[in-house]
Amino acid sequence: MPAEATPGARAARPSPGPAASRAQGAQGGPSASPSASPLTERQEARRRRILHASAQLASRGGFDAVQMREVAESSQVALGTLYRYFPSKVHLLVATMQDQLERMHGTLRKKPPAGDSAAERVAETLMRAFRALQREPHLADAMVRALTFADRSVSPEVDQVSRQTTAIILDAMGLEGDPTPEQLSAVRVIEHTWHSALITWLSGRASIAQVRIDIETVCRLIDLTTRPDRGPRA
């Protein structure tokens, strides 16, 4: 995430796991720019407070409830400092979504999906992630609206969300090696479908049952792209 003194910089992260590394390579390199400076412990703590305040405000009142001045007050940082971390509310909420997905990923790793096939494991994983968002509908709506409003200036944050979603899917697939181009293509289609299903559910145009059907259907693409020598672990 942005370092305090550099608006567009990314914060250093612990070394990513295999799935995260594959996701970064599949989408144009690592999430941190080469010129980014690692955040100090104090800066990272400040950034975490900001993201926590953003999530709390969004959980209570959705997109409109996240006002930069209130976020600054809740996280105990100066308003100018907040804008150095996140130039706008959209930047902040997209970063909040990446943070929420990262937390979900950690939870999912503690209890991996138990499906027999890669398609079943990915579908189960995405539905678990969906149910987690379902428990916080105002927060989910705020984050999705921010993604919808994001322009080119928010591309780094949007890419982080995409990388995190890809890493979640790749982990669930349980590949023995790097994904093939066909598998990566399937992952992208699955990711798009999952985000679209979230949008249609939030807008009241799809039921949870329909979301599950759509997710399970699109995940079958994985089985179509599996090769005997590059397939998922049994």
List the helices and strands and how they pair.
Elements lengths: L17 H9 L14 H21 L6 H8 L3 H7 L3 H22 L7 H17 L2 H13 L5 H19 L7 H22 L5 H18 L9
Question: What does this entry show, briefly?
Answer:
The protein has helices at residues 18-26, 41-61, 68-75, 79-85, 89-110, 118-134, 137-149, 155-173, 181-202, 208-225.
Q: What does this entry look like structurally?
A:
The chain is mainly alpha-helical. The longest helix has 22 residues. The N terminus and C terminus are likely disordered.
Structural class: mainly alpha
How many beta-strand runs?
0
Note the total helix count.
10
Tell me, briefly, the overall form: globular
Mean pLDDT: 84
User: Helices and strands, in N-to-C order?
Assistant: HHHHHHHHHH
Radius of gyration, CA atoms, in whole angstroms: 18 Å
**Biggest sheet details:** none
Distance between the termini: 37 Å
Work out the helicity level: 55-70%
Q: What portion of residues belong to β-strands?
A: under 5%
Low-confidence stretches: 1-16, 27-35, 229-234
Domain HTH tetR-type: 44-104
Region (Disordered): 1-45
Biased composition (Low complexity): 7-38
Protein name: TetR family transcriptional regulator
